[in-house]
Automatic annotation (TrEMBL):
Primary location class: cytoplasm
EC class (word): transferase
Its job: Is involved in the conjugation of reduced glutathione to a wide number of exogenous and endogenous hydrophobic electrophiles.
EC number from the UniProt entry: 2.5.1.18
Family to which the UniProt record says this protein belongs: Belongs to the GST superfamily.
Protein name (database record): Glutathione S-transferase
GO molecular function: glutathione transferase activity
Subcellular location(s) of the protein: Cytoplasm, Cytosol
The organism's taxonomic lineage, starting at the top: Eukaryota, Viridiplantae, Streptophyta, Embryophyta, Tracheophyta
GO cellular component, one term: cytosol
Keywords linked to the UniProt accession: Cytoplasm, Transferase
Length: 121
């Protein structure tokens, strides 16, 4: 089934201070995907964000044609799968290399990012 990407509506809910949101910005730009960006006030989250990500209530959330995808790594996989004809691929084709990328991304999210947030700077 061929997808008509001309009419795609892509909205990214994010925060300028989030490296995880930056990850999604970079992916969208690398793939050449036009999108609307909605800056979220993380102290006063919008009803849209809360309805699109009712479990974790956090950014980033990608909304593609009205369908929300939360969590940055899931968003990257979705972007790669849906826009597979748009180079470059975000994740390696080899399953072992893809697993290594996921490992380091998760390590960043769970260890490095938390260390930076809790550091007394």
């Amino acid at each position: 089934m061929e997808k008509d990407h001309i009419e795609d509506e892509v909205v990214l809910f994010g925060s300028w201070s989030s490296s995880i949101c930056t990850r999604v910005h970079i992916a969208l730009k690398q793939k050449g995907i036009a999108y609307k960006y909605v800056e979220e006030d993380l102290q006063n989250k919008s009803q849209s964000l809360l309805s699109y990500n009712p479990v974790h209530k956090k950014v980033p959330v990608l909304v593609h044609n009205g369908k929300p995808i939360p969590e940055s790594l899931l968003i990257l996989e979705y972007i790669d799968e849906f826009w597979k004809d748009s180079a470059p691929m975000l994740l390696p084709g080899d399953p072992h290399h893809r697993a290594k990328v996921r490992f380091w991304a998760k390590f960043h999210d769970e260890k490095v990012k938390i260390s930076l947030i809790t550091a007394d700077l």
